[in-house]
């Protein structure tokens, strides 16, 4: 009997965290996370303000006075509100830490998904749902951190400031982080901020953690509209001069083009340090590229992986297409959206001119849309920031390095850093090679990864706030 009990106990120690009973604190966190995922915050039909109010209610229940909770909206965007919560520190002269995350999520159609995207589903060790990774994972952790500090009365000199905003996912939409930086600068003032990004790398099978990243600069997200106008006509008398054909031919030319390779200090360091961890031909290519970003062989090998391809050049891809007005008529107007992630040092106008050159068709117009953000300098990776971050990571994942990297997407840090609040993309979360299916079908994140990040970020904020 004693041996049986011992065996059962030993087995429990190796169960994945998601298969074990949750601690009370973990259950409370999961409840926050569930409410976030199950509150629709898409631009089309969702409501960030409602979710901001729900999180404010949780903070109030935890003991925050109304004076420290701020729901901020503008008249033209009543559903795109933000929440700013403030927990004062013991030192009136100490500057705050800003915990930043966005509440809005990318559109998701139920008919396309295996599971309801707005129901939190835990299955086979994963949390499934829109926003489970991007960015309600980070948002839920920050709310949890603020509640734990308040309820446990944790001593801290620095104030903590939570900012949950809307509009990060859609270029041209009202962006709460941008609005806060321009209109509520004093309310969110901080020594530095932490936000999404810097996702870690995990092996294919999900078992081995390879490296953690921290953002050191990011690409610029820019949309372009390609349009064709045509007199049209009746479909019974088709002609080669068809707006859809013109636009399709132009998009194929863009799809077949690779922008020149480029690098930054951070991207070269990333490839240099990832090379020995990756090994094989890919590792050799990383090493070669870190020494010479014009090495054609290295670039060709790296380009076979979408992550690495995006880290070494500007990329452009068609994301939306609209056209035609009737099934029996030749199209009169056709348009497409091309989303570009522009490498630091390259201007949006340079990319627009290249797209116009590539389509090589006077009937196709290429127009730049309003930019999501302006190019922003990379915030400095200071010893005060990096030393605790690296030390805490080493305790949890011995031998797993923290590597600076170029953010290949775009985050709201691009609004905070130019406003004088250096903001870093760092989550303590590891993604598998599929990138946690961000923006795609059946978005997911490993439950164990999320719970580990919760503990890690709480400890890290505790150190920074002293």
What can you tell me about this protein's structure?
The protein folds into 2 domains: 17-197 and 411-464, Zn peptidases (Aminopeptidase, 3-Layer(aba) Sandwich), CATH 3.40.630.10; 221-368, Alpha-Beta Plaits, CATH 3.30.70. α4 (136-152) packs across α15 and α9 packs across α10. The longest helix has 18 residues, at 447-464. The strands form 5 sheets. The protein has a 6-stranded mixed beta sheet with strand order 1-2-6-3-7-17. A 4-stranded mixed beta sheet has the order 16-9-8-18, with helices on both faces. A 4-stranded antiparallel beta sheet has the order 12-14-10-15, with helices on one face. It is α/β, with parallel strands linked by helices. It starts with a helix and ends with a helix. It contains 15 helices and 19 strands. Mean pLDDT is 93; it is low at 1-18.
Looking across the biggest beta sheet, what order are the strands in? 1-2-6-3-7-17
Radius of gyration: 24 Å
CATH class of the largest domain: Alpha Beta
* Structure summary, number of beta strands: 19
What is the CA-CA span between the terminal residues? 49 Å
Helix content: 25-40%
């Amino acid at each position: 009997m004693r041996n049986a009990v011992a065996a059962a106990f030993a087995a429990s120690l190796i169960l994945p965290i998601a298969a074990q009973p949750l601690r009370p604190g973990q259950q409370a966190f999961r409840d926050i996370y569930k409410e976030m995922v199950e509150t629709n915050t898409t631009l089309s039909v969702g409501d960030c303000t409602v979710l901001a109010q729900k999180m404010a209610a949780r903070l109030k229940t935890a003991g925050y006075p109304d004076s420290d909770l701020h729901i901020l909206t503008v008249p033209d965007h009543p559903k795109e509100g933000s929440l700013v919560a403030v927990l004062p520190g013991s030192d009136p002269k100490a500057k705050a830490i800003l915990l930043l995350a966005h509440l809005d999520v990318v559109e998701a159609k139920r008919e396309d998904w295996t599971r309801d995207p707005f129901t939190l589903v835990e299955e086979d060790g994963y949390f499934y749902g829109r926003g489970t990774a991007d960015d309600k994972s980070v948002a839920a952790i920050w709310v949890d951190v603020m509640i734990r500090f308040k309820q446990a009365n944790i001593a801290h000199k620095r104030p903590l400031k939570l900012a949950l905003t809307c509009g990060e996912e859609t270029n041209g939409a009202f962006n709460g982080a941008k609005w806060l930086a321009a209109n509520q600068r004093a309310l969110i003032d901080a020594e530095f901020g932490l936000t999404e990004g810097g996702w870690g790398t995990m092996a294919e099978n999900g078992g081995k953690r390879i490296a953690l990243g921290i953002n050191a600069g990011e690409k610029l997200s820019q949309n372009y509209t390609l349009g064709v106008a045509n007199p049209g006509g009746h479909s019974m008398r088709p002609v080669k001069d068809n707006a859809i054909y013109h636009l399709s031919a132009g998009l194929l030319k863009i799809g077949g083009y690779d922008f020149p390779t480029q690098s930054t200090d951070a991207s070269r360091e990333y490839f240099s340090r990832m090379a020995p961890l990756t090994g094989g031909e890919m590792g050799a290519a990383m090493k070669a590229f870190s020494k010479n970003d014009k090495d054609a062989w290295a670039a060709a090998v790296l380009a076979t992986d979408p992550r690495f391809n995006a880290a070494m050049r500007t990329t452009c891809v068609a994301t939306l297409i609209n056209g035609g007005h009737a099934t029996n008529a030749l199209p009169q107007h056709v348009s497409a959206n091309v989303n570009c992630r522009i490498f630091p040092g390259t201007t949006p106008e340079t990319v627009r001119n290249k797209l116009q050159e590539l389509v090589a068709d006077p009937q196709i117009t290429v127009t730049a849309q309003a930019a999501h953000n302006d190019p922003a300098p990379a915030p400095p990776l200071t010893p005060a920031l990096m030393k605790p971050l690296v030390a805490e990571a080493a305790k949890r994942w011995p031998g797993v390095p923290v590597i600076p990297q170029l953010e290949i997407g775009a985050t709201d840090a691009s609004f905070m850093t130019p406003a004088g609040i250096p903001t870093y993309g760092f989550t303590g979360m590891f993604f598998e090679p599929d990138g946690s299916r961000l923006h795609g079908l059946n978005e997911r994140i490993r439950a164990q990864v999320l719970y580990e990040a919760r503990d890690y970020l709480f400890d890290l904020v505790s150190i920074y706030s002293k």
